Amino acid sequence: MILSEDRQSHWAHVITDKVWGDDIVDFSDDDEALKAAKKAIIAFVKEDMEIDTKAREKVASLKRGVMEGTSEWEILYKKYYEEEKNRRG
Questions:
Q1: Which pLDDT value is given to residue 30?
Q2: Are 81 and 51 in contact (CB under 8 A)?
């Protein structure tokens, strides 16, 4: 996992503090709110990594052998990343 436990905890606190501070949600149990935030963070990062992998695979599968780091690669990667992201909803 790209995010360490400490980083997950930090972001969970940032998110729950902001949501609570902006009076969007009142939490009946702070620990459950933090667990839910961590779970959402992990799911988001996992899906983003999957989308990234798919986009990279699509660029790599092109017959013309586009080199990573080139502007053409960046354009194609962004295109395929957005397509995969939109496909997943």
A1: 86
A2: yes
